[in-house]
Prior knowledge:
Elements: H1 5-20, E1 27-29, E2 35-38, H2 40-46, H3 50-53, H4 58-62, H5 64-67
Antiparallel strand pairs: 1-2
Amino acid sequence: MGYDLAKLLAERENLLTIVDNLMEGIIAHDKDRRIIYLNRTAEQITRFKLEGVAGRDCHEAFGVAFCGGGSSFS
Length: 74
């Protein structure tokens, strides 16, 4: 694969820009429910910034309203 680091980083930034500008709120967490990403819409809906909840357990940060039983890692 002829990708260099600069190109990969640019593609990552482009993807993050797209996801960040979606009308839907996106909350991503790892298999241990630690929050790893919120897009801008999710920040508006939850009224939390990623910096304030990153690394925290989703249920502890948001409660059942956003990280309820629908989570496959619940």
